[in-house]
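Fig. S4 source data, part A: sequence.
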Amino acid sequence: MSTRSATSGTSSIGYIVRPGDTLSTIAAKHKTTVRALAAANDLRSVNLVVEGAKLRLPKAGVEGTPSSTTGPALQLSRSTVRAHIDKWALHYGIPVTLARALAWQESGFQTNVTSSVGAWGPMQVMPDTWTFVETLLLGRKVSRSGEGGVEVGMALLNHLLKRFNGNQSLALGAWYQGERAVRERGFYDETKVFVANVLALTGRPL
């Protein structure tokens, strides 16, 4: 989450887009993220994946948690991750469609995906952001687990929605590039793409 790059280099192996493929399903199949896949192929939208196109595949993400001392987290099924997202979205009063869309954009509902800069889990939370949520928003530690990653992400999204008076676009922009940067500079070009993609996903069954 926020001001990070999910790119981790590309492999020499390509992938031919098949009927029914989306960036999210391709990313999940190859244990990477939508953002990394889009960046590796200079794609501006999750909708711009064409049957028969050849995509470069980013290197697979590193599995594990933000802390090397806690051991690997259990890889959960997508249905279980979806249930956790719904639970914590309802807990914080966040629209479930928005919560699911953000998690799908970030990880495709994968539990153990880590970006090249350390963003981890279903919501791709950075270690410093995790600490911020624990310390300032929740006042307690959260387990480095699939559900813990969802809880931290939903707590942060709730915080950002409140900071921007419920404006989903601004909250998502702050999620991607940081609240201060949004207030001082507006959206970066890549932030505009990220926000548009997440909002587009809210209209899909995930």
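Fig. S4 source data, part B ends here. Residues 10-58 form a domain with the Membrane-bound Lytic Murein Transglycosylase D; Chain A fold (CATH 3.10.350.10).
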